[in-house]
Amino acid sequence: MVANLSCPHCSQPLPINLFVAGQPVHCPACHSHVEAYIFPECHKELSLRPTIHLALEHEAACYFHPQYRPITPCDHCGRFLCEICAISFGAQHLCVECFTKVRTQKDETGLVRYAALYDNVALFLVTAPVITVIFWVFTIFTAPVSLFLSFYYWSRQWNLVRRSRLRFVISILLSLLLIAGWTFIIYQAVTKGINPSYPAS
Q1: How many Å apart are CA 56 and CA 66, to the nearest integer?
Q2: Residue-wise pLDDT tens digits, 114-160
């Protein structure tokens, strides 16, 4: 059995046998709803997984592994594939080359091609204008947006690779600092406009 998954909210280990496709699991630590789709092979014990058979002298062989007996042809190119090479994609079996081509097709559904890293976006919004200096004035808009993204995606950011919330923390602190600075600047400008000081006659 493969290692446990982790709750994205509190990092509590969750056994994969708790997950059923389409049904959320309640984390025992933080009681959050966690939903995951597990590859069917992960539910099988090692002893129950199919073994690879060697091809006999006059038998057809896998296109990529000539020593292995094929189990299915590729549904796109027709190459014979062994257990190692056959990639299940819905009801189809594809070789690695055809699967790579499918991934590049924009109209193909069912594949996750990217995951937005909102912690990077939030950090970029508050650091890029300041670093470039000439665009620092745009922080009056980017700082509130960064603060919103940091709080909104604090527990909503989805990624297969576990990430810390350090960038969110830095973004929140910088956003609050910039918002406080702009508030002070605007307050000073407004008060000086209402109470202008005239030189004594």
Answers
A1: 10
A2: 677 889 999 999 999 888 878 888 999 999 999 999 999 888 776 66
Buried b (16+ CB within 10 A) or exposed e, 138-162: ebeebbeebbebbeebbeebeeeee
- Is the pTM for the entire model greater than 0.70? no
Handedness of CA 54, 60, 64, 67 (dihedral sign): positive
Cβ neighbors of 180 (< 8 A, separation 6 or more) are none
Q: According to the model, what pLDDT value does residue 3 have?
A: 52
- Residue pair 63/95 in contact (Cβ under 8 Å)? The answer is yes
Q: How confident is the model at residue 169 (pLDDT cuts 50, 70, 90)?
A: very high
Contact status, residue 175 vs residue 150, Cβ threshold 8 Å:
yes
pLDDT (0 to 100) of residue 83:
86
Burial of 82 (0-12, 13-18, 19+ CB in 10 A): buried
Q: What is the largest CA-CA distance in the chain?
A: 112
